[in-house]
Amino acid sequence: MPSDLHTHTTFSDGKLTPEELIAAAKEAGLHYIAITDHDTVDGIAHLYDNGLYPAKSIGIIPGIEFSAHHPTQEIHILGYNIDIFCTELIDKLSEVTNARWDRFSEIVSKLNGLGYEISEAEVLQIAGTSKSISRSHIGRVLVKKGYFPSVREAFDVLLSKGKPAYVAHYRLEVEDILSLIKAAGGQAVLAHPKLVHDDALVEALCQKGIEGLEVFYPQHDAEDTERYRKLAEKYSLFMTGGSDFHGFPTRYPTKLGEFTIEDAYAKELYRPEKA
Ligand code: AMP
Ligand code: MN
Ligand code: MN
Ligand code: MN
Description:
The protein is an alpha/beta fold. The protein folds into two domains: 187 residues, TIM Barrel; 67 residues, DNA polymerase, domain 1. It has an eight-stranded mixed sheet with strand order 7-6-5-4-3-2-1-8, sandwiched between helices. The radius of gyration is 18 Å and the shape is globular. The site of adenosine monophosphate has 10 residues, from helix 5 and helix 6.
């Protein structure tokens, strides 16, 4: 039976509102879904405020996705069963998302300096109501303006770490993220280990207090999945997985339900008392 523990909404860089996401998840027959927006739990707070979380017919796990500081690699850490009212977390998140506003402005300046004619207003229009402005919003503007055929290519040439328009995030060390997740009563999971592009670093991270590993992920092939399953077993981490659904037609999976995991993994994480 299907579940999905990694999804994004309009509160970060996803296309669907939380209401639309939950409706689509029910439509797809999902039993458990985690909302894991970048640097914000506002999407879950929004559902709560509208009486949609907790939900009766689907198990919603309140989550988040953080980006950790590293000089060369992308390290993303998911938090599950996050207390959305934890003030220590909320205060830090507002610092982190505020820094995203300055960062996006800096990226736009760099792009202008490189000859790309894009404006802050165009990015904000694409970002809509999101307060967690991301490189993917900027990538979409570059595609819309005809500079690149896909967001991926915009990342490859300009936006990825080490490329000319890259600007670092607010600096959060892995340890800072783990303690924020812990303060909010949650469990920390290393996201998409293959995208760290350094298995020795992944193995080091597994020994730093992370509790789970995102073994099941669209970009993991059978061999990757097996390798990360063994790593999870070696360090007694629980296994999670999810689609990293953003809702865009050019990014697999394009629909919820296309990439799912067995309910058993989600059940282990689900805390009805949190709902
Ligand atoms: P940011 O949070 O500003 O660092 O932006 C990272 C987001 O951009 C990720 O969450 C993905 O949604 C997207 N992204 C990262 N790398 C790529 C890539 N190579 N191609 C397309 N989208 C990407
Ligand atoms: Mn994203
Ligand atoms: Mn990620
Ligand atoms: Mn994600």
